Amino acid sequence: VMARKRPADEPPAGAPAWMATYGDMVTLLLCFFVLLFSFATLDVQKFQAIAQSMSGSLGVLDSGMTLSMEPLINSFPADSPTEEVEEFKKLYEQMSEYIKENNLEASITLRLDERGLLVRFMDNVLFDSGKADLTPNARDIINKVAEIIRQNDKNIRIEGHTDNVPINTFRFPSNWELSTTRAVNVVKYLIEENGIYAYRLSASGYSDQHPVDDNNTAEGRQKNRRVDMVILRDDINDLNP
Fold it and tell me: How many Å apart are CA 82 and CA 97, to the nearest integer?
């Protein structure tokens, strides 16, 4: 019996040869778009971190504007104890809540950096122009902040900063005296009126030597006139900036 001949136009068994090439192309396209998606997600995270680190002057953030705590807290050393990281997260959240509740976003800014938590007060929040005596409003603000920092035993450095406009009065012959006296007065108030242990505190005056903005503009000079309260991480023993 002779075998039946297959018609000439009958396709071979199995999938057409072009399906293998098509399947490879679809698989490669799928991998390509998956990679694009992963890159896009990574870029968003990086953008948030960059936006937080660059917002304002030298990364100072308006309180309550944080998109995620992680990019901020990641500035801590990788070997930081988990308990300390959580403690600073709580500190940041408490400070941020107080600032928002009292509409102080424009006057007090927060930043988590490698030193710890920086609480930045614009000078008009605490002092009248060219003076170093705490205003009544400043005392109320510091009282509230002291309630928060009293809940831990972190060391705290108070730093006074000025713009580059010279001052020459009997009490303040230069901006060095003004910036230092302001820092000392905040420290004394924390000790004498709020019961913060003196060993936790230090005061520094930097005059106009550490600007965070351009002293050639009125807006820049306003940002440079400030008092920084730095709540320090446990392993920072050197109280120099």
Answer: 23
